[in-house]
Amino acid sequence: MAGKANGRKARNGGGEITMSDIARHAGVSPMTVSRALSDPPSVSEKMRRKVDAAVRQFGYLPNRIAGSLSSKRTNVVGLVVPSIRNSLYAAMVQAISDVARANGLHLMIANSGHRLEDEEALVSALLAQRVCGLVLHNTAHSRRLRELLARTDIPVVETGNLPAKPIDMAVSYSNFDAARAMTGHLGRLGYKRIGFVTLPLRDNDRSRERRRGYFAALKELGLPADPGLVMEAPGGFAEGADALVRLVQTHPDIDACFFAGDVLAVGALFECQRRGWAVPGRIAIASFDDLDLLRHTVPTVTTLRIPRQDIGRRSAELLVNRLRGASRQKVRIDVGFEIVQREST
Amino acid sequence: MAGKANGRKARNGGGEITMSDIARHAGVSPMTVSRALSDPPSVSEKMRRKVDAAVRQFGYLPNRIAGSLSSKRTNVVGLVVPSIRNSLYAAMVQAISDVARANGLHLMIANSGHRLEDEEALVSALLAQRVCGLVLHNTAHSRRLRELLARTDIPVVETGNLPAKPIDMAVSYSNFDAARAMTGHLGRLGYKRIGFVTLPLRDNDRSRERRRGYFAALKELGLPADPGLVMEAPGGFAEGADALVRLVQTHPDIDACFFAGDVLAVGALFECQRRGWAVPGRIAIASFDDLDLLRHTVPTVTTLRIPRQDIGRRSAELLVNRLRGASRQKVRIDVGFEIVQREST
DNA sequence: CTGTTAGCGCGTTCAC
DNA sequence: GTGAACGCGCTAACAG
């Protein structure tokens, strides 16, 4: 009864301190310790004090692995983003993290690198960890991932784009509408030859939707759709600069360029500074996503404000509500966007 | 034996599919399923095929919670950063994530918001989740956190600064040395009145070390230490611009300014563009941390290159080696830094 | 409000 | 190479 000498592999020098240890030293049952820790009001003042004292004395940290196995619930939310480095995702992740923390949840983050197979593998791994909810920054999943998610009953929030038919819940803006709106905006400002620089299209429905929006707006504006005015570029300052230069050289009559990625736009703007091309005099520049940077450059850059932080916050709130028992119904929230007209157009 | 009707709260509509289920359907023992999944070579070809078939048929996902409880090990690494949004941390996190993933580990990320009490609470929570290792982007911990970490025997990597006496392992550069080197560099370029703009000093040993380095260099250069040339500013473009303007107005003879944060420096540079102050003609600008942005602005900005990605990679590698059985000895790796001289100085 | 009993789903250990 | 027994540390469910 005293202490079954835990023979060999005593890595910790004696095994973990358990709830029973605390219970024994506090002179109560393990169950009372459990309750005192997870639901203090359900235990009498006297008991609680004894437990707290023993907990402090031993520096006891409950084992949530054991707790999770027993209760069949974890307090861990899984999150898959295309890239951790990108500041756009970072704003969303931060918001999710804040809401999660306020509700006693933890975050397990993985990045898919824009690869659908990786997304699938990562979600599997997160499900194996029995996360209590998932946020996926992608809506174009592999077939196997769809099947996997269909079989699970944890809440799932998709974001990054507005899917026609969400798996469970979706919080996003429409990439199509946003790109169409900005292109239309440029048209109404009087620009006639509007270039479009897109991020890689492969495995990325968001990029494809943006391009579709661009062409839709051109049609609505009665402007010709010239495939030569569209360029695909990996994200980066240099790539944006490069794309702009090539567009201007091949299409000297270009008078505006819409970049489907903020870094691309800024790179292009700097290139204009270097070459002495007036912005918007020689060429107007519009961007996608309201990086803080864009309102401080010279000139400031017209862009689309996507409420990334709201997306994160609302996604997390949806998860939390579900975990608190909200009924399971499909949700599809369009957070919208906003055109921010600045000096560059 | 067939199936103990699992009465009431069948949330999943019948309870989880377990290893026993798979074993039964594959006609083997649960132990064989376990081995086939975690160490395939230890099982005969025939058994493995039967198990694999059943696993696929049922879409079985092993419960890592149960596995972790049983084996007393998790494959989850805990990570605490001051802020998820900041791109500096993002580069490090990405590198850690990559190494972790390559080694079958997952990441649980929390952000302390630069608050030491929060760091303490978050580490406690991560330890309760029984993470197998920790990376902390901070070296100035609360006393209670130090005690907590002293009692644990999981590997801990500290980063963000080079502590004199690491808790366990440390991978970083020296903020003091870096700031001293850049200030010295400016002095040797001939600048005589060098301003210094620091990020908030509270609860941030990194900021304080940088300021110390600045003053040490001034002394070595034989320049007077003028407290009026030092300003504290929260991070941000506008704040950097503001700080510069105030320094120039109160000290018209200032000829260079060293910003201990990249965003501050860029904000100041843009302000110079707006005001038509030549950089470095009127005032030279130096920054801290080699944001991609800094090599694309006009003019490009002199800065300190900190190998953030290496820091992440090596931190993760140290953890992995420990988990693989490397002996427990203190490690203190100085990854160094590099001065990148560009057009702004 | 408190205690008792009985697992949670797996891996360790030892026998075969 | 395979299986049976046992327990990881905690909480759900019920009884008092």
From TrEMBL, chains A, B:
The record's listing under SMART domains reads:
HTH_LACI (SM00354)
| Basic residues: bias regions | 1-11
Question: Where is the stretch described as Disordered?
Answer: 1-21
- Taking every annotated instance into account, which residue ranges of this chain make up the domain HTH lacI-type? 17-71
The molecular function GO annotations come to: DNA-binding transcription factor activity; transcription cis-regulatory region binding
Q: Which domain of life is it from?
A: Bacteria
Q: Which keywords does the record carry?
A: DNA-binding, Transcription, Transcription regulation
Q: What is this protein called?
A: LacI family transcriptional regulator
Q: Which organism is it from?
A: Reyranella soli
